[in-house]
Amino acid sequence: xxxxxxxxxxxxxxxxxxxxxxxxxxxxxxxxxxxxxxxxxxxxxxxxxxxxxxxxxxxxxxxxxxxxxxxxxxxxxxxxxxxxxxxxxxxxxxxxxxxxxxxxxxxxxxxxxxxxxxxxxxxxxxxxxxxxxxxxxxxxxxxxxxxxxxxxxxxxxxxxxxxxxxxxxxxxxxxxxxxxxxxxxxxxxxxxxxxxxxxxxxxxxxxxxxxxxxxxxxxxxxxxxxxxxxxxxxxxx
Length: 237
What we know:
Number of strands: 12
Structural class: mainly beta
Largest sheet: 12 strands, mixed
CATH class: Mainly Beta
């Protein structure tokens, strides 16, 4: 499975309902409470985000590592865009009602026109200020990565089909995430390191709009729904 496919799965795999209540979850280490509270507050308040990214995908079974670079942007509510620059130009775009996977070299765009931001896995919904981390995850600390960052390991209370845990390297002072890593149930890791990030800047609405140009074949993503057709207008007698 390629790094791009791993991202597509993370975007399209629906999260299962949280099991139990917050009181049944393991207690959060008091030392981590300020970091988690700051992280939660930052992503609830952030309206837009833009950064360069380096993605590293490690396939455990085949002992293969893939590295990609590009630019990511998101805007609340429910808009996100990954523009890959290397090794191959492609884009993943969520426009609020549809998910597009755009592959210019193949003259192809895949689309799920019934996609909703609330159908994302809980590994991504917090980026949109949705949900509370402590209600969705058991959170613990791992060995610090250096640079003054704190490494948080988030294990979902309810087992998820697409991933087993989420690892965040967080600046404890600002609550901003420097690196986000999703570990799937086969032990593969999909990591995004963010650089040159900007928060709450103005992003033009058309940044999250895709209109297929001539020569691009549009195909529904396998398993996605077919949106209902608009009723034909009726004439006046």
